[in-house]
Specification:
Layout lengths: L17 E3 L2 E5 L2 H12 L4 H15 L9 E8 L2 E7 L9 H6 L18 H12 L4 H14 L1 E2 L2 H17 L3 H10 L11 E2 L2 H13 L2 H5 L1 H13 L5 H5 L4 E3 L2 E5 L2 E5 L6 H11 L10 H21 L10 H4 L2 H8 L19 E8 L4 E7 L9 E2 L4 E2 L29 E6 L2 E9 L4 H13 L5 H6 L3 E3 L4 E4 L5 H9 L3 E4 L8 E7 L6 E5 L6 E4 L1
Parallel strand pairs: 17-18
Antiparallel strand pairs: 1-20, 2-10, 2-21, 3-4, 3-11, 4-7, 5-6, 8-9, 9-14, 10-11, 12-13, 14-15, 15-19, 16-17, 19-20
Helix pairs in contact: 1-2, 2-4, 2-5, 5-8, 12-13, 12-15, 12-16
C-alpha cells in the first residue's frame, strides 16, 4: 500500500499527498490540525494530540461535533490496537410510551426527545488517563483560547453553519431550542467565512472540563446545569443518567481484505457494515477503477451489507446475531452469490442460517490514533444548555419505535451508531488510520477508500479525491458529478436509479495517515470536500 504513494494521482486537483517523520495530524479544519501538531512538538504523543485536536474541533467546527456528542477511537499504542466506545445511552425516562404521549409515532430529529447521554468528554478523559503523557489541562488549553478569543471561521464550515441557521430558523420554537441562536448566531445570522467567532460560554465549559478531568460533566456542576435545564424545558435526561455513564474499552473487529487487516469498532457502531461490504466485495476482481463492473459490484456489496446492518445491529448485548456470524466468510459468500449483472433491491439476510468530525494522529514512536466525534446531525438536537456552549446530540433519532426491531427504543440503551474510526494493519504491524465523516455515508466511504488504496493502488490523497458513490435506498444511487459519464450510463443500464450530487459535503469528508514500515515516514491525505489540513513535522 505504501509503495504506491509516489504514483501519479489522477484525481487530486487541490492537494498533494503529504509526508512527515516526527508526527502528523490530519483533520477537517486547519486550526485544529495545528493545535495537535503543537502538542506533539511540546512532547505529547499521538493520543495527546488527538485529544487536543478533538477539543479544538468542538470550537472551530461546531457544525459537526460538540461537547454534547459521542466519540469512538482506535488507538495503536505500543504495537497493540485498542478500541474505545464512548457512545451514550438513552435516558432512563425515555420510553416509547412517553414519546407516544408526546404525540410522536417515530423518533424526532430535534428537541429533547432524541438526546442521549454524551460520551465525548469522557472519551477525552479516558484516553488521557490510559495513554497520555502531558497534563490534561495542557491538552484543552488551546481549545479554551480559541473559544475565548475567537477564530476566523473557515469556508466550508461557514457554508454548513448558514445551512443550519436557515433550517433552524424554520424548525425551532420553544424554550428547549431557543438558546441555539443565542450561542451560535448571537448577531442574528451565521458567521461568514473569515469572520471572527468567539464563544465565552464554551471556553468556560472547557475550563471546567480541564480542571475536573471532565468529571464536572457527569458528576459535578455541568451535570447539574444539564439536569436543571432539562427539567425546566421538557427534557428527560437527568443527573443520574450522566452520573452512571462510563466509556467502554472494546476489542476491535476486523476482516482481511487483499492481505490487509481492516479494523473497526464492534457494534453498536456501524463499522461492521464496512467490514461486511469488504468481505462480500473481495469475491470480485477490481482491476480497473473506471469500469462499470467495479462500480456495480462495490455498490451491490455495500447495499447487502447495509441492509444487514440496519436489520441486525444495535447495542451488542441486545443483538440477536453475533458479529462473528455477520463477518463469517461463509455468510459473505452466500450474500455475494446474490449479486448479478442487474441492480438489486436488497433484503436483509439471516447469518444464523449458514454534521461528524474525524481526525488521525501519529507520533515519532509509532503510536497512531483514529478518532471520530459527532453530534449526529450537524449541530445536533438544537438543544443548547444556556451559557455553556454545550449543544446536545440527537443520536436517539436512530432508535426504532417498532417493538419487533432489534434497535427498538428502551431506557438506558445504546442505539445503532453511525460514527466509526478505521484502522489498517498487516502482519501484526500498523499500516495506518483512516476515517470518513458523514452519517450513513461513513461505511460506504471506508469501503471505497480501502478498495482505492488496495485494488487500484492509489495513494492516500488520490484515494480521498477519487469520485464517490453512495447507496440511498432500494436501487437509488447517488454519484458525484466527477464520475465519468460512461459509468453513469452503464449503471443506469444495469437498473440503478442515478442521482447526480449537487452538494459534495454529503459524500463524506475523510482523512488518512499511513506509515512506511521500513523508514517510519508518515504519509497523509486530507479531504478536498472540506477545509481539510495535514500538519506534519
Amino acid at each position: 500500500m505504501f509503495d504506491n504513494h509516489a504514483t501519479h494521482n489522477p484525481y487530486a486537483s487541490k492537494r498533494s499527498v503529504m509526508y512527515g517523520r516526527k508526527g502528523m495530524v490530519a483533520t477537517s479544519q486547519p486550526l485544529a490540525a495545528n493545535v495537535g501538531l503543537d502538542i506533539l512538538k511540546q512532547g505529547g504523543n499521538a493520543v495527546d494530540a488527538a485529544i487536543a485536536t478533538a477539543a479544538a474541533l468542538t470550537v472551530v467546527e461546531p457544525t459537526g461535533c460538540g461537547i454534547g456528542g459521542d466519540a469512538f477511537a482506535l488507538v495503536w499504542f505500543n504495537n497493540k490496537l485498542h478500541g474505545l466506545n464512548a457512545s451514550g445511552k438513552s435516558p432512563a425516562k425515555l420510553t416509547p410510551k412517553e414519546l407516544a404521549e408526546r404525540g410522536h409515532q417515530e423518533m424526532p430529529l430535534y428537541g429533547w426527545e432524541p438526546v442521549t447521554v454524551p460520551g465525548c468528554p469522557a472519551s477525552w478523559s479516558a484516553l488521557s488517563k490510559k495513554f497520555g503523557v502531558l497534563p490534561f489541562k495542557d491538552l484543552l488549553a488551546p481549545a479554551i483560547e480559541l473559544a475565548q478569543t475567537g477564530f476566523p471561521v473557515s469556508p466550508v464550515i461557514s457554508y454548513l453553519w448558514e445551512k443550519a441557521f436557515t433550517e433552524f430558523s424554520k424548525e425551532f420554537s420553544g424554550e428547549a431550542t431557543s438558546h441555539w441562536f443565542d450561542t451560535f448566531a448571537p448577531q442574528g445570522q451565521a458567521p461568514k467565512a473569515g469572520e471572527i467567532f468567539a464563544s465565552p460560554g464554551h471556553a468556560k465549559t472547557l475550563t471546567q472540563l480541564a480542571d475536573s478531568h471532565c468529571e464536572s460533566f457527569y458528576r459535578g456542576e455541568l451535570a447539574q446545569e444539564i439536569d436543571s435545564f432539562s427539567r425546566k424545558s421538557g427534557g428527560l435526561i437527568r443527573q443520574s443518567d450522566l452520573a452512571e455513564y462510563q466509556v467502554e474499552w472494546v476489542e476491535p473487529i476486523s476482516v482481511n481484505y487483499r492481505g490487509y487487516d481492516v479494523w473497526e469498532i464492534p457494534p453498536n457502531g456501524q463499522g461492521i457494515v464496512a467490514l461486511m461490504g469488504l468481505n462480500i466485495a473481495k469475491q470480485f476482481d477490481f482491476s480497473d477503477r473506471e469500469s462499470i463492473s467495479a462500480y456495480h459490484h462495490q455498490i451491490e456489496a455495500m447495499k447487502l451489507a447495509y441492509i444487514d446492518g440496519h436489520e441486525h445491529v444495535t447495542q451488542q448485548d441486545k443483538m440477536r446475531v453475533s458479529s462473528e456470524q455477520l463477518l463469517s466468510d461463509e455468510y459473505a459468500e452466500r450474500r455475494g452469490r446474490l449479486i448479478g449483472e442487474q441492480a438489486l433491491t436488497p433484503q436483509a439476510g439471516d447469518p444464523k442460517a449458514g454534521g461528524t468530525v474525524y481526525l488521525a494522529t501519529a507520533d515519532k514512536d509509532g503510536n497512531m490514533v483514529s478518532f471520530i466525534q459527532s453530534n449526529y446531525h450537524g449541530f445536533g438536537s438544537g438543544v443548547v444548555i444556556p451559557g455553556t456552549g454545550i449543544a446536545m446530540q440527537n443520536r436517539g433519532h436512530n432508535f426504532s419505535l417498532d417493538p419487533e426491531h432489534v434497535n427498538y427504543l428502551q431506557p438506558s440503551k445504546q442505539t445503532f451508531h453511525t460514527i466509526i474510526p478505521g484502522f489498517i494493519s498487516k502482519q501484526q504491524q500498523a499500516v495506518g488510520a483512516f476515517g470518513v465523516m458523514g452519517g450513513f455515508m461513513q461505511p460506504q466511504g471506508h469501503m471505497q477508500m480501502i478498495i482505492n488504496m488496495t485494488d487500484f493502488g492509489l495513494n492516500p490523497q488520490a484515494a480521498l479525491d477519487a469520485p464517490r458513490w453512495q447507496w440511498m435506498g432500494a436501487k437509488k444511487i447517488g454519484l458525484e458529478a466527477t464520475v465519468p459519464q460512461h459509468i453513469v450510463q452503464g449503471l443506469m443500464e444495469k437498473g440503478h436509479e442515478i442521482e447526480i450530487a449537487t452538494d459534495t459535503t454529503t459524500y463524506g469528508r475523510g482523512q488518512i495517515i499511513l506509515k512506511d514500515p521500513q523508514s517510519g515516514v508518515l504519509c497523509g491525505g486530507t479531504e478536498s470536500r472540506t477545509d481539510g489540513h495535514i500538519a506534519s513535522w
